[in-house]
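tool=predict chain=A
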Amino acid sequence: MLEAFGHQTRGAFDAACVSTILARDRFDVLLLATALRHGPDGFTACRRLRSSGADIPIIMLGDDADEAGVVTGLEAGADDFMSKPVRLAELRSRIKALLRRDRYTRSSPELRLGHVVIDHSAREVRRDARPVALTHTEYEVLFALMAQPNRVCTRDELVRTVRGDATFTDPRSIDVNIHHLRLKLERDPSLPTLIQTVRGVGYKATPLGGGLGRE
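tool=predict ok
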């Protein structure tokens, strides 16, 4: 399917083969199954790749939507996680979104806005110089907003940035992630200044706030 859309692909069936191929050639994205035919599983393979300095974007493919598996994959260093059976249109959309983010972060690995810093090379968020734990989606939403300070992003835009296509996700789910981000990052979540609501449109990131209030 990916080759039909113009991508060149290579297959590997175990972690050793993955490492050998990545050491020899340059690839844009790695699709890594949680269950490999031989040797360590995909989670272990992902951790080893990251510890060796591999910075290739990784999408993990798991056999179910188990939350623990998703969390394990993301904590192992994956950039995204999809459950089998994979919907091919969604996979293509997520690859496109990941490639867009990768091109941007290579040119600008650190973002700073007010008291919040994103170090994308370490995939770390700091508030007042202290690390803050975010979920995968919270991180991606925050990055999308901070990458374009003072620009209003609609919910659909944020979904497309995070997932590649708004078709597969309820745009209102962004509101939940914004709420959690405010709880974790705002000095006063009831009076947000970092992430502002633009009523009827979406959200924007600003270091000073603009008195736009909340929905």
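Residues 88-107 form the longest helix (20 residues). The chain has seven helices and ten strands.
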